[in-house]
């Protein structure tokens, strides 16, 4: 990732994104995600309701580092960090949320042997609602992440008008890199499922393809899961779909590389 992403993370962790409602947190949720599975689409929708906190990747090591730099803290204590975020980013109805990739969860809550510690399990058990996001088309997911890594463009809003777009960066076909991304996506999803089932944690699943096909219906389902009243309208979709001819070309080239057809 480039300095552009770092600047966006610093801005996202700044006080300008705080809700400052003064309301004590009474309801918590976590979006358990894998990259390119619709987490930005959902989290931005939820934030715009004004009743679902301001869900972001707060346990991403880069977000934690940005928080430390902003506040001149040398060593961030995760429990205290999360408590402060709840004070700053709980919505008026008492709801706080975050989104979390498996590798971010493991980075924070695993020991030197890469085993998830009790604190990690406690963290998830303290959530009132766990929502797992997944994507059926793993190849398209892997290609999407491959492109995002190359271009440093992770989401595009409808009002951006192409400003600061990095999609003009040349992205060359790299079958090994795409294969590695594919393995990475499958592994992260498998780890979430195994961990949740092993510890008998209750969760709901949201499919990316269904979210894209029925944005309002699936968004309503998510809002209902976290207790938002049905009378609250679903905000219009803010993010643009990023898949384009580049994604299609890379997919076709990858299938040809494997000796398969895209039929």
List the main descriptive attributes of the protein structure presented here:
263 residues; alpha/beta; Rossmann fold; four-stranded parallel sheet; 11 helices; 9% strand; P-loop_NTPase
Structure, explained:
- This protein is an alpha/beta fold.
- The protein has a single domain, classed as P-loop containing nucleotide triphosphate hydrolases (Rossmann fold).
- Helices cover 49% and strands 9% of the residues.
- It is built from eleven helices and four strands.
- The protein has a four-stranded parallel β-sheet, sandwiched between helices.
- Helix 1 packs across helix 3 (61-70) and helix 7 crosses helix 8 (175-198).
- The two termini are 34 Å apart.
Per the CATH scheme, the topology name is: Rossmann fold
**So how many helices?**
11
Strand content: 5-15%
Mean pLDDT: 92
Give the total of beta strands: 4
Q: What is the distance, rounded to the nearest whole angstrom, between the alpha carbons of the first and last residues?
A: 34 Å
Strand order, largest beta sheet: 2-1-3-4
Give helix and strand order, one letter per element, not per position. Answer: HEHHHEHHEHHEHHH
The helix content, as a percent range, equals 40-55%
Q: Tell me what the CATH architecture is.
A: 3-Layer(aba) Sandwich
* Low-pLDDT sequence parts: none
Question: How many domain modules?
Answer: 1
Structural class: alpha/beta
Name the CATH homologous superfamily.
P-loop containing nucleotide triphosphate hydrolases
The radius of gyration is 19 Å
Sheet with the most strands, sense and barrel status: 4 strands, parallel
Top CATH class: Alpha Beta
Oligomeric status: single chain
